[in-house]
User: Fold this.
Amino acid sequence: MLKRLVELEAEIAYQQPPEPGDMEFCYRKGHIPFLLSAPHGAQHTREGVPKDEDEYTAGFARLLAEETGAHVLYAHRKSGTDPNFYPDVPYKQTLKQIALAERIALVLDLHGASPKRPFGLALGTIRGTSCPEYRPLILESLQQSGFAEIATGLDRLDVDRTFPAAGRHGAETVTSYAWQQLGVQAAQIEINAHLRIVERKPDATSPAVFRGNVEGILKTLRALLHLVHALTRA
Assistant:
């Protein structure tokens, strides 16, 4: 799985704008009613300031979609906006079209957290409101895969504390947009850098060499695969 993850991430150009007439994001159709989203897969812009890409989140979303048949929407080129902050941007417009056409039941929005964060994964459900039907199953599935609120280090699951997916005042996250504007249940999942970055790419915004925890990355991939399969069976 790691080899395929690296191959998929290699196609993401973090700091390269899209060609004229192209979009900064891609959509791949699936056959189950779940959508994997990675809006920060490449560098993006918030309030005029460039923001670093969430490395390997696009690769994660694509690999999970390949393995499960989920729909996937991901940033693959530099964006002049931020889909997880601004309303009415092309990424969200496309998400709306997908949600309506494919009758999406749940959006799982993947993001990257700093390696300094005291958790492996962080689940944001706007404090339990954005996916009332699926939240218990998500928590149960992640716990079965070794991520729990009572754990420590990279096994710790932060739930609706550090990143509740609500967004600060005036901002609109992908999770809040899906739930509040489209009526589609949604959850945000933040992944610690140690659990997603196989090896930092040469075009990354940060020049520092970084390699994640191989076993931890595999554990995280398997946990998210287990989660999507559990959702499909529910």
User: Anything to note?
Assistant: Residues 214-233 form the longest helix (20 residues). The CA atoms of residues 49 and 80 lie 9 Å apart.
